[in-house]
Write a structure and sequence with these properties.
Blueprint: H1 18-26, H2 32-36, E1 42-45, E2 49-50, E3 60-71, E4 80-86, E5 89-95, H3 100-106, E6 112-122, E7 125-129, E8 133-136, E9 146-149, H4 158-169, H5 181-186, H6 192-201, H7 211-235, H8 247-255, H9 262-276, E10 282-287, H10 293-306, E11 310-314, H11 318-331, E12 339-342, H12 348-359, E13 365-368, E14 382-387, H13 395-404, E15 410-415, H14 421-428, E16 432-436, E17 447-452, H15 459-468, E18 472-476, H16 491-501, E19 506-509, H17 515-526, E20 532-535, E21 548-553, H18 561-568, E22 579-584, H19 590-601, H20 605-616, H21 618-625, H22 641-654, H23 664-669
Parallel strand pairs: 2-3, 5-7, 10-15, 10-16, 11-13, 11-14, 12-13, 14-15, 17-22, 18-20, 18-21, 19-20, 21-22
Antiparallel strand pairs: 1-9, 3-4, 3-6, 4-5, 6-7, 6-8
C-alpha cells in the first residue's frame, strides 16, 4: 500500500461495494484514512474457554464442545440446528441461511470444536446464533484471541468491517516521520505507524494517556497549529499603511459619558499600531459581556475613515445590526460621517441606492448583516471590516473573509465568548489576540441568587414589583416542549403558566421559530410591547435590552457555567441593577452545586470559562459556544494540556523555515490541507 492510497475512497478497498460504501458514509467513513482513524471502543476477549455451566447470557464467550447431532429441517425458513454438549451441559448452535454441506464440514459428528459467539437462553437451553467463529482443536492456535469492537451503524456487519479494517491496518505503508527524530526521542513519543497499530490491536484506544494515543493527539495538534500558522502568513501579507492621526477618536473619547478602562486603551493602541503598519491586521478582540468591545472598534473605524478608506461593520442578526447602527450614529453625531444600514430586508430601491453610493465612495461606513458580503456589493476603497460575534466563523471562513476585503483591508473580529488560553491558541492561532479583561467602572455587578423550583410561587410578587418599576424580565427554559424523557422545563408550558399570571404581557421565543419570527418578537420586547419574554437559550447572542433587569433560569443545574454566564449577561446592560435567579430541583450533584456557587461568587467570564472547562470538558464547552468550529477528534485541553503546549512550541520552532511538503501527509490526515488551499500537496 502506497501512502497516497490512504486518501482514496473506501470503495477502492477489496470487498467494499456501493451498498457498504453508503452505510460507511453514514458513520463518516468515506476515505481509507477514516478507517485508520476509527479505533475500536472495546475488545472481545476470546482467550478463555468456558464450561457450559459457566456461561453468562448476553456475553460473547468461547466454549469447547462435542458435536452430537445435526438438524437440517426441510421446511423453508426454519433454522439449521447443531446439538452440542460438554460434561457440564448442552447447547444448540443456530444458523440461518447456511448451506448444509458447509455446516457438515464445520461440525463433524462426535468431533470436538471451539465455538465463540453471543450466548442466549431459549427453551431451557443455552444457544449461540450464527457464531463469530468455529474451529477444530487442531486449529485453535490460529484463532485471534482478542477481537476489536467498533462502533458501527445498522447495515454494517461487524465481521465484515473487521476484515476491511485489518486489510488496511495490516498493510499500512512505512511513512517517513514528519516529526524530527531528536524531538521524538526527547519527548518520549512513539512513531505514527506504531501508534496506529497499537490503537487498533490493543486497549490503548480506551486510554487517552497511553503513548500511542498521546502521539496521535500530538499529531492532531501539530496539524492544527501548522494550518493556523500558514493561514496567518497568507492573511498577514503586505499592505499600504493607513495614514491618520488620533484627533477624531480622542475628541470622541472626551465626549463619552464614561472613561475607557486601561484594558480598552491597551487594545485600542494594539489596533492602531496594526492599522499604521505595512502588514494586514487580522485581530480578534476577546472580551466578556459588557466589557466595551464595540466602542473600541468604533474608535478604530473613525481613524480608518479619516485615512481615506471605507469601513464595514457586520453582525449576525438584523436587530443587533440595528442596535449597532443607532449607537454609531449617536457616537459619530458630530463627525459628519456618511453611514448607512443594509440587511436582507432592505427594500430594493434603497438597496440600489446603497450599492451605487458604496461603489462611488459616498458611504464611508456600512453596517448590517452578512448581506454586506454578497457578490453584488462592491466598495470603492474598503479599509476595515469589523465582525461582531465572530464565533460563527471557523478557520476556512476567516480565510475566505480576508480575501474578500482586498489587499489593503484590515480585519477586526469581536467575540463575547471568554475562552481559556489553551483553547484560544488552538482556535485562533492564525490571528493576533487582544483581550479586554476589565468592565466599565459604572457597570454594576449582577446580583445572582439561587432558589429551589418548589418555591417558584415566591417569584410572582417579585416579578410584579419589577414590572411596576418599569423593568422587563427574561424567563429561560431548556426545552421548547414538555419532554416525557427529560425532567426539564418546557418553554411553551411555562409561557402558558406565566401568561395566566400576567395576561397580555408575555412573549415566547425559541429555536423552532424562523428568523423573521424571532426578530419580530425580540423587537417587541425591545420596544416594551412585551414585558416578560419566555425563551430557550436563543437569547444568548449579544443583543442589548437596556430595560431587562431580571433573568430567571430554570433547571440551572442542567446548563454549563459558560452558558449560564452568557445568559446572565442579557440583563443589567443599562443603569439599573441587574438580577439573575437560578432555579434548581432537589438532589443536585456535587458538580451542579459547585457550578451554582461559582456563578454566585464571580462575574469574571474568563475565570468561569476555565472552571467550566475543568467541570464539563472541552466538548461541552465548545459544542455550546463555538458553532462554527469543528471540535478536535482526539485532543482534549483538560487531559492533554501538556501536549497543547508541546505542539505549539514545536510549530513555533519550525515555522520560520518550514517545508510544508514534509507535513503534507499530516495535514491531509487531519483535513487541514484544504483550509490553507494546499492543492499541490
Amino acid at each position: 500500500m502506497k501512502k497516497e492510497f490512504i486518501f482514496n475512497e473506501v470503495s477502492n478497498l477489496k470487498g467494499v461495494g456501493a451498498q457498504l460504501s453508503k452505510y460507511l458514509k453514514k458513520k463518516k467513513i468515506e476515505k481509507i484514512k477514516d478507517i485508520i482513524l476509527n479505533f475500536p471502543y472495546s475488545e472481545t476477549d476470546r482467550s478463555k474457554i468456558y464450561k457450559l455451566n459457566q456461561l453468562e447470557i448476553g456475553k460473547i464467550q468461547s466454549i469447547k464442545v462435542i458435536v452430537k447431532k445435526l438438524n437440517f429441517p426441510r421446511i423453508r425458513n426454519l433454522p439449521n440446528k447443531i446439538n452440542c454438549e460438554d460434561e457440564t451441559g448442552k447447547i444448540d448452535v443456530i444458523y440461518f441461511n447456511s448451506r448444509e454441506g458447509y455446516l457438515r464440514k464445520l461440525y463433524p459428528i462426535n468431533g470436538w470444536v471451539i465455538i465463540s459467539g453471543k450466548v442466549n437462553y431459549f427453551n431451557k437451553k443455552y444457544q449461540i446464533t450464527n457464531p463469530d467463529y468455529v474451529t477444530t482443536l487442531e486449529k485453535q492456535g490460529y484463532v485471534i484471541k482478542n477481537i476489536p469492537k467498533y462502533n458501527l451503524t445498522k447495515g454494517i456487519n461487524e465481521k465484515k468491517y473487521r476484515s476491511i479494517s485489518e486489510q488496511v491496518i495490516d498493510n499500512l505503508p512505512t511513512i517517513d516521520d514528519w516529526i524530527d527524530k531528536k524531538f521524538i526521542e526527547n519527548n518520549k513519543l512513539i512513531s505514527w505507524k506504531d501508534s496506529i497499530m497499537k490503537l487498533h490491536k490493543t486497549k490503548d484506544a480506551k486510554n487517552s494517556q497511553s503513548k500511542s494515543y498521546r502521539r496521535l493527539v500530538f499529531d492532531e495538534l501539530c496539524a492544527n497549529f501548522l494550518s493556523l500558522s500558514e493561514n496567518r502568513k497568507r492573511i498577514k501579507r503586505k499592505k499600504s499603511p493607513k495614514n491618520f492621526t488620533n484627533k477624531d477618536s480622542e475628541l470622541i473619547m472626551e465626549r463619552l459619558p464614561f472613561k475607557l478602562t486601561k484594558s480598552q486603551k491597551n487594545v485600542l493602541q494594539e489596533i492602531t499600531s496594526d492599522l499604521l503598519s505595512d502588514n494586514r491586521m487580522f485581530r480578534i478582540i476577546q472580551g466578556d459581556v459588557g466589557s466595551g468591545k464595540t466602542i473600541v472598534s468604533l474608535l478604530s473605524i473613525i481613524n480608518v475613515i479619516r485615512s481615506g478608506y471605507q469601513c464595514a461593520f457586520m453582525s449576525p442578526t438584523e436587530i443587533l445590526s440595528k442596535q449597532h447602527f443607532e449607537l454609531t450614529k449617536k457616537i459619530f453625531k458630530d463627525n459628519n460621517l456618511k453611514i448607512d444600514f443594509l440587511t436582507g430586508k432592505t427594500e430594493n430601491k434603497k438597496r440600489k441606492e446603497i450599492l451605487k453610493n458604496l461603489e462611488n465612495g459616498k458611504i464611508e461606513l456600512l453596517i448590517g448583516t452578512h448581506s454586506l458580503f454578497q457578490k453584488k456589493i462592491k466598495f470603492k476603497k474598503l479599509g476595515l471590516v469589523v465582525i461582531d460575534e465572530q464565533h460563527k466563523f471557523g478557520v476556512k471562513q476567516r480565510s475566505d473573509l480576508a480575501k474578500k476585503g482586498g489587499d489593503n483591508c484590515d480585519v477586526l473580529l469581536m467575540s463575547a465568548t471568554p475562552i481559556p488560553r489553551t483553547m484560544m491558541m488552538s482556535l485562533y492561532g492564525d490571528m493576533d489576540i487582544s483581550k479586554i479583561n476589565e468592565k466599565p467602572a459604572k457597570r454594576k455587578k449582577i446580583i445572582t441568587l439561587s432558589k429551589p423550583e418548589k418555591k417558584i410561587n415566591e417569584l410572582w410578587p417579585f416579578i410584579n414589583k419589577q414590572l411596576s418599576n418599569d423593568n422587563q424580565v427574561f424567563w429561560v427554559c431548556p426545552l421548547i416542549e414538555e419532554s416525557t424523557f427529560l425532567d426539564y422545563s418546557s418553554a411553551k408550558k411555562k409561557f402558558e403558566l406565566i401568561n395566566k399570571k400576567f395576561p397580555n404581557k408575555v412573549g415566547l421565543i425559541h429555536g423552532a421559530l424562523n428568523k423573521d419570527e424571532k426578530e419580530k418578537i425580540l423587537k417587541q420586547f425591545l420596544m416594551k410591547e412585551i414585558l416578560i419574554l419566555v425563551s430557550t437559550t436563543v437569547i444568548e447572542v449579544g443583543i442589548d435590552f437596556p430595560n431587562a433587569n431580571l433573568i430567571i433560569i430554570e433547571n440551572a443545574n442542567k446548563f454549563g457555567l459558560a452558558q449560564l454566564h452568557q445568559l446572565r449577561g442579557r440583563v443589567g446592560r443599562g443603569e439599573k441593577q441587574g438580577m439573575c435567579i437560578l432555579l434548581f430541583k432537589d438532589g443536585l450533584s456535587k458538580n451542579s452545586i459547585k457550578r451554582i456557587k461559582i456563578l454566585k461568587y464571580t462575574d469574571d467570564g474568563f475565570y468561569i470559562a476555565e472552571e467550566d472547562l475543568k467541570l464539563r470538558g472541552f466538548g461541552d464547552l465548545m459544542g455550546y459556544q463555538q458553532s462554527g468550529i469543528k471540535n478536535f477528534r482526539f485532543a482534549d485541553p483538560v487531559n492533554h494540556e501538556d501536549l497543547f503546549k508541546l505542539a505549539e512550541k514545536y510549530v513555533n520552532n519550525i515555522k520560520k523555515n518550514i517545508n510544508l511538503k514534509k507535513y503534507s501527509f499530516l495535514l491531509k490526515l487531519f483535513d487541514k490541507a484544504e483550509i490553507i488551499n494546499l492543492s499541490d500537496i
